[in-house]
Specification:
globular, 8 helices, Rossmann fold
């Protein structure tokens, strides 16, 4: 099966049972390779930038396992990606990174796919992970985080520059029940003051 066929099956025919596709750095898909407690950096990677790569490397050093980049072809609040768009984003990884494609827009769904996973997230994502409003209330949030804990999933958190201040895990208020699921990447190991949103804006500004 070609990479395009594998992506098309995942995007257009999820009822066929394929819930994720591993794509090696050489661009070849592996449909049946198990991912045992992987280190996963989820994102849209639109575009992939050096901050992502620095974060992946810092997380790999922390977890002892090479980080795999993950793209969900479906999103909670955005249209699903089509095959051509997925291929375009994957081309950025060629010769550089392994990636996994899923249909898992939420961390609970990702955790069900990859029990024991270590998810690599930035400060802003970690803030949302422990904010009840993103779940529809505190009970739904507690249920999701309890399931992730039961799935033996954890989170490695990279800091982020916000309004001129470098924010880290220590700046996030969370219930003591969840604190053990989160680990900070020290600033000396990771700091990259760049965002995909800013890069897209810069690119758009360069267009005639």
């Amino acid at each position: 099966m070609t990479l395009g066929d594998a992506i098309r099956q995942l995007v257009e025919h999820p009822h066929h049972g394929k819930t994720w596709v591993l794509v090696r750095a050489d661009g070849e898909p592996e449909l049946d390779t198990p991912l045992d407690a992987p280190t996963v950096l989820p994102g849209s990677f639109n575009p992939l930038h050096h901050g992502h790569e620095l974060l992946a490397d810092a997380a790999s050093a922390s977890s002892g396992r090479r980080a795999i980049l993950e793209i969900s072809v479906v999103n909670v609040d955005k249209p699903p990606l089509d095959v051509d768009e997925v291929l375009r984003r994957l081309e950025q990884f060629r010769g550089r990174r392994d990636a996994v494609l899923t249909r898992a827009p939420t961390f609970v769904e990702k955790g069900r796919l990859f029990p024991g996973a270590t998810f690599v997230v930035g400060w802003d994502t970690a803030v949302r992970l422990v904010a009840p409003r993103y779940y529809g209330g505190p009970e739904a949030m507690a249920s999701a985080l309890e399931e992730l804990r039961d799935l033996d999933c954890r989170f490695i958190v990279g800091g982020r520059l916000v309004d001129g201040v470098f924010r880290t895990l220590d700046d996030i208020e969370m219930d003591v029940r969840w604190r053990g699921m989160f680990e900070a990447i020290p600033e000396e190991l990771f700091r990259a003051d760049v965002s995909s949103t800013a890069l897209r804006a810069d690119t758009a500004g360069e267009r005639p």
